[in-house]
Amino acid sequence: LALKGGTRGYRIPDWQLAPLPARLTREVLRRAHIASEWEIYDWLHLPSERFGGKAPVEIVSLTNFDKLVDSLMGALRIQD
After folding, report:
1. What is the mean pLDDT of residues 23-47?
2. Are 43 and 56 in contact (CB under 8 A)?
3. Which of 7, 17, 43, 44 is 20 to 30 A from residue 74's alpha carbon, by CA?
4. Quick one: pLDDT at residue 62?
5. What angle do CA 46, 51, 56 make, to 5 degrees?
């Protein structure tokens, strides 16, 4: 996920340096190809009541990965 930041060019969110958040980002991008980069960015990094007041990139683990991706797809209203 790379975001255009005006005249500063593209920026990559820091969480993509960690393995599981990077994997989560790649999977969401793969499945949510019709959503905008900024919409995906917001859904991945903003705290949500859906996730106990935390951001998906903060709570992703090997045990909740698939459920988290499915929940994000539902939030983005994207079906496979």
Report:
1. 84
2. yes
3. 17
4. 94
5. 50
